[in-house]
Amino acid sequence: MKNIVIAAGYATRLGELTKNFPKPLLKIGENTILGRMLDDIDQIPDIDEHIIITNHKFAHIFEDWALEQNYEKPITIVDDGTETNDTRLGAVCDLLFAMEQLDIDDDLLVVAADNLLFFSFSEFVEFAKQKDSSCIMCHEQPSIEKLQRTGVVELDESNRVLGMEEKPQVPKSHWAVPPFYIYLKKDLDLVRHSVENGCGKDAPGNLAHYMVDHTTMHAWPMSAGRFDIGSLDTYYEAVEKYGKE
Predict the structure, then answer these.
(1) What is the spatial distance between Cα 160 and Cα 51, in angstroms, rounded to a whole number?
(2) Which DSSP string do the residues of 149-160 spell out, in sequence order?
């Protein structure tokens, strides 16, 4: 299984902090946002490589960072060639670009690189193996307002995904979907041809929504929480809350 980190965005909401520096490599205490995530993922036996897809503006920063790491699994940096937020490929196209550049034909763990997690991805990987299907994560979100700003899924009693909506005005459940996915090798043809068949390009949830409509997907309810770093306020809050751990 390959761990693919989607890290090609420009984090414009963090202003000067990320004008010339990638958000995933911002420090939380002595570690980086991305480093905290890889510390966990690197220990999963199924994972054999970390692939970080970034943009041309930040690729050299990731390459320098990678040289300083001592993970058990190798790190590969993929440069998508873009240099501005206006010319970005979008998360789905970045995933497809990395798959094509590296000729990937393995199970995939696909993660966004701007979250602090309070559970292990090993639980997610084991869930996907038990279900033998591509999978998404989900968590209960009581706030209707927050559900209206994210992906929302309906599940059956076995956690099979019955349907998914992006930013629904009237959510059909309280199951929200964070940006972490497993796509099995048997479904990669669907992934490869998703955009040409109408899948949205920008958000990683676009692909999850497309896949739910075209193959069997299950959803793993997160066993603990996460902290989404999406703005300057949430970054400084994360530094204050978790930087001393």
Answers:
(1) 28
(2) TSEEEEE-TT-B
Residue type, 233: D
pLDDT in tens, 158-207: 999 999 988 889 999 999 999 999 999 999 999 999 999 999 998 899 99
pLDDT of residue 244: 78
- Cα–Cα distance for residue pair 226/115, rounded to 1 Å: 7
Side-chain-facing half-sphere of 235: CA atoms under 13 Å: 18
- Give the Cα separation of 228 and 219 in Å (integer): 19
Q: Using CA atoms, how far apart are residues 139 and 136, in angstroms rounded to an integer?
A: 10
Strand 75-79 relative to strand 49-54: parallel, antiparallel, unpaired? Answer: parallel
The residue-averaged pLDDT of 110-126 equals: 96
**Contacts (Cβ under 8 Å, ≥6 apart) of 135:** 124, 127, 128, 181, 182, 217, 218, 219, 220
pLDDT tens for each residue of 14-27: 889 999 999 999 99
Q: Tell me which residue of 201, 66, 206, 189 sits closest to 136, measured CA to CA.
A: 206
Task: State the Cα torsion 240-140-125-191 to the nearest 10°.
Answer: -100
Q: Among 7-11, 21-25, 214-218, where is mean pLDDT lowest?
A: 7-11
One DSSP character per residue, 189-231 reads HHHHTTGGGT--SSSHHHHHHHHHTTS-EEEEEPSS-EEE--S
Pairing verdict, β 31-32 and 27-28? antiparallel
**pLDDT for the residue 12:** 83
